[in-house]
Amino acid sequence: MLSASVGLGWTLRPARPEHAPAMQEVERVAAYMFPSELLPPALSGQVTPLETLQAGIAAGCAWVCLDWEGRVLGFALCREEAGCLHLAEMDVLPAVARRGIGRRLLALVQHEARQRGLRACTLTTFRSLPWNAPFYAGAGFRALEPRGDGVQGFPHLAELLAQEAAQGLNDRVAMVFSL
After folding, report:
1. Running along the chain, 179 residues long, what does each successive block of 10 average in pLDDT?
2. Backbone angles phi, psi at 172, to 5 degrees
3. Rounded to an integer, what distance in angstroms lies between the CA atom of residue 85 and that of residue 118?
4. Measured distance CA(120)–CA(112) in Å, rounded
5. To 10 degrees, the CA torsion angle through 179, 77, 102, 172?
6. Which pLDDT does position 109 carry in this prediction?
7. Total structural domains in the chain?
8. What whole-number distance in Å separates Cα of residue 43 and Cα of residue 60?
9. What's the pLDDT at 2?
10. 137/26 Cα distance (integer angstroms)
11. Domain range holding 63?
12. CATH code assigned at 112
């Protein structure tokens, strides 16, 4: 999917290398929405490294929402992992939140996973924030609980949850959208 109209003057398209710094800025601004008890101060100023964004762009696993002037309003960054398209980061500028940008980016990720013949979309997120787990549940994702085989057959999610806990992130949940 090369591009899709999102709304008046908004377009979804694959990210290009020149979008990466603006994607970092969207992530930085969106982080202010998170309560400090969930996002430790040491993590609140961190953004996805440029190298990681560039690698996702080069792999065809990053999409942006652009306004009519070409400014990045939101983005989704994924990676293929364990037969899944894992949503590593998705952010929308708070000034344009609740206008369907996140839903459309997420639908694009789900569509891309289907096109690639993958078994699922996965992610980890905050369990209780309305714009996190409940948002994804509304798009068909279901929460997975840890078990002996990882996180119900998705060992990469168990590893991610352990890494996030080691960084001080609380209230996290793994979610899957089966294809």
Report:
1. 56 97 95 72 78 97 96 97 95 90 96 96 90 92 74 82 86 92
2. -95, 150
3. 7
4. 11
5. 80
6. 97
7. 1
8. 27
9. 42
10. 23
11. 4-178
12. 3.40.630.30
